[in-house]
Amino acid sequence: MSAIFNFQSLLTVILLLICTCAYLRAMTPSLLDKNKTGFLGIFWKCSRIGERKSPYVAVCCVIMALSILFSD
């Protein structure tokens, strides 16, 4: 089943996107800061979510990892 039709896979993809964008912005800020609008602005917005809500994102990542490990 693809990630679009499976809710748990969709949440995993979104969490990975947020974490990856936050990491990329921490390593090379100019890469994401120049694209704040348009289609590539989605990655800048994900990095801002990862920076500002990092404790919540971390808890969601742990919960998602446990649910993946212990699900059927």
From TrEMBL:
The keyword Signal applies. It comes from Oncorhynchus mykiss. Belongs to the KISH family. Involved in the early part of the secretory pathway. Keywords: Golgi apparatus, Membrane, Signal, Transmembrane, Transmembrane helix. Its main location: Golgi. One of its GO terms (cellular component) is Golgi membrane. It holds the Pfam family DUF1242. It is found in: Golgi apparatus membrane. Residues 1-26 form the signal peptide. The lineage of its organism: Eukaryota, Metazoa, Chordata, Craniata, Vertebrata. This is Protein kish. It comes from the Eukaryota. The chain crosses the membrane at residues 54-71. InterPro entries: KISH_domain (IPR051523), Ksh1 (IPR009653). It is a single-pass type I membrane protein. The gene is U373.
